[in-house]
Amino acid sequence: MNFENILVQKKDSLAQITINRPKKLNALNKTTINELNIAFEALEDDEDVRVIILTGSGDKAFVAGADISEFSHFSVEEGGGLARLGHEILFDYVENLATPVIAAVNGFALGGGLELAMSCHFRIASDNAKMGLPEVSLGVIPGYGGTQRLPQLVGKGKAMEMIMTAGMISAEEAKDAGLVNHVTSQDELLPLAEKIASKIMRNSSVAISAAIRAINAGFKDGVNGFDLEIEEFGECFGTDDFKEGTSAFLGKRKPNF
Predict the structure, then answer these.
(1) What's the whole-number mean pLDDT along residues 239-253?
(2) What is the pLDDT of residues 136-194, one digit of tens each?
(3) Which residues contact 219 (CB under 8 A, 6 or more apart)?
(4) Measured by CB atoms within 10 angstroms of the end CB, which terminus of the chain is less buried, N or C?
(5) For residue 75, what pLDDT is reported?
(6) Which CATH code fits 6-201?
(7) Which residue from 192, 176, 216, 173 is spatially nearest to 102, judged by alpha carbons?
C-alpha cells in the first residue's frame, strides 16, 4: 500500500502504521484521516495480521493535533459534519476493530492526536510524550471523542480539568491517571510495543476479538455489557480456537491458534 501521509509495514502477523508528516508534527488532515481509514480497513481484512501498532514519525510527535487551517472557516453544519465523518471512518472505527491496536505515543499527542490514541485499544508512551486536549483555547471542544473517552480512562474530574485548562500532562502523569499503560524511553518504545504484541499473538485472536466487543459494550449507552459478555462467552464454545485451547491445556502443551 502506497500513501502520501502514512507508512504501513508488515512483519509476520504484526503490522505497523506510522503517521508520516514530520514537518507538520504529524497533524491530522483530511488526506491523513482517509488514508488511515483505508489502511485500517485493509489490515482488518488481512487474516494474517493479528496486532496493529500505531505511531508517529520522528521523535517529537505522535500527532500534534488536527490541521486547523482545513476547518477554520467552517460553518456550524460543516463542523458537525466534520466530526461525524471522523467518528465514522476513523475514531469509532478503530475502537471497534476486531484486531487489537496499540498506540505507541512517541511525543506530542494533542487534540485529535490524543483522541486518536484514545480510540486505540490501549496506549504506551515514550518518556518525552506530552498529552492534552487544548481545543477550548481555540473556542471549540474536542470533537473526535475526547469528551467521552478521556473521562472513561482518567475519570470525570481529571478529564474536566484537562479539557477546561487546555493544558498538557507528562507521560508519567498520564500513566498515573490511567491514560497510558507503560512509559519507556524513546528507543525502547517500539520494542516494548512489539513485546506486548507478541504476548497478544500467542493467544486466540477469535477470543480477543470477542473480548474487545464485550469490553466496549460496557461503555455504550443502552447496551448491557454483561449480556453481551454472556453471549460472546457462549459463542466461543463453537469455535475451533476453543477446541484447540482446551485440548492443549488438558494435553499439557502449547496451543496452536
Answers:
(1) 96
(2) 999 999 999 999 999 999 999 999 999 999 999 999 999 999 999 999 999 999 999 99
(3) 152, 225
(4) N
(5) 94
(6) 3.90.226.10
(7) 192
In the predicted model, what is the mean pLDDT of residues 200-223?
95
Instruction: Indicate the pTM of the whole model.
Output: 0.95
User: Of the CATH numbers 3.40.630, 2.60.40, 1.10.12, 1.10.10, which one belongs to the domain with range 205-250?
Assistant: 1.10.12
pLDDT higher than 80, residue 1? no
> Fold identical between 6-201 and 205-250?
no
**What pLDDT is attached to residue 92?**
97
The torsion region of residue 155 among left (phi > 0), alpha (psi -120 to 50) and beta comes to left
Domain ranges (residues) in the chain = 6-201, 205-250
For the chain, report the end-to-end CA distance as a whole number of angstroms. 27
- Give the confidence band of 71 by pLDDT, cuts at 50, 70, 90: confident
Q: Active-site residue numbers?
A: 115, 135
